[in-house]
Task: structure prediction
Amino acid sequence: MRITIKCPICASRSVARSSQELSVTLREITYRCENDECGHIYIAQLEVVRTLVRSAIHNPAVSIPLSKHVSRRQAAELVQTA
Result:
């Protein structure tokens, strides 16, 4: 599976050509526009920004904030089980 996005210049399909891990939660991706008349090559970033379901594995080196929706749902579940 390839993640594609629209070119910010001409709105044509752009394809990822390479990527580089900057951290465990951040990648830098080089995209190329498939419109030969445009030919735009640019960098985008893909970042893990929040957790919806906590992992069953604990990794103290990684800190990903919980979504506010998850926090509210978990608080409600705690109240119901008490």
